[in-house]
Amino acid sequence: MQAAKAGAHVRANQLGVQIGKFRYLVDLREAGEIVSSGNLTKVPLTKPWYLGLSNVRGSLTSVIDYSLFEGNDATFVDSSCRVLAFSNSLSFNSGLLVSKVLGLRNADEMDLIDEQAAELNVNQQQKKPWILNRFLDADGQIWSQISLSLLVQDQEFLHIGL
C-alpha cells in the first residue's frame, strides 16, 4: 500500500513454492488453483514420479512429484503439501505436488545468478530447458524460475508409462 501511495510500481508476478528442499518461482499466468493434496487415485504401470489423479473442481488432474521427476528424493507428504494445478491456458490437466506454498515473490528484488554460480548450489542438477533463471534472494536462498509451459513440452514429462 505504501509503495502504491508513493507511486512505486511493485510487481509480484511469481508464486514461490518449495518442492522437497528446493525453492521455485512459477509465473502466475501459468499457475492455476492451489488445492490440498487430498486423495490421489493411483494409476498402475506409471513412473514413480506420477502420483496419480486428483479431482480438482470436477476435472481429473494428473499429479506429479517434481522432486522425483528431477531425480531427487520423493516429496514428503504432510498437511502443508498442496497441488499447484497448471493454468487452463496451458491446456494440460496436471499439477505439481509442492511441499509448501511460500507466497508471492518479485524476482526483480532478487539477484540473478549466472549458471556457473548456480552449479555450486546443492541441487547439482543439469540445466533443463524449463528452468529459465536462478535467483538469489536477500536471505541467501536460491530460487529456480520454472516454466510450466516448457515443462509440458518435454517428452520425458509427457511419457508417464513404464
Helix content estimate? 10-25%
Give the count of helical stretches.
5
- Mean pLDDT, rounded to whole units? 86
Distance between the termini: 51 Å
Q: What is the strand content?
A: 35-45%
- State the major sheet: 6 strands, mixed
Shape: globular
Q: What is the radius of gyration computed over CA atoms, rounded to a whole number of angstroms?
A: 16 Å
Side by side, the strands of the main sheet go: 8-1-2-11-10-9
Helix/sheet category:
mainly beta
Description:
Strand 6 (82-86) and strand 7 (94-98) form a beta hairpin. The model is unreliable at 1-10 and 116-123 (pLDDT under 50). Helix content is 12%, strand content 38%. The radius of gyration is 16 Å and the shape is globular. The chain has 162 residues and is mainly β. The strands form two sheets. The chain has a six-stranded mixed sheet. Strands 3-6-7-5-4 form a five-stranded mixed sheet.
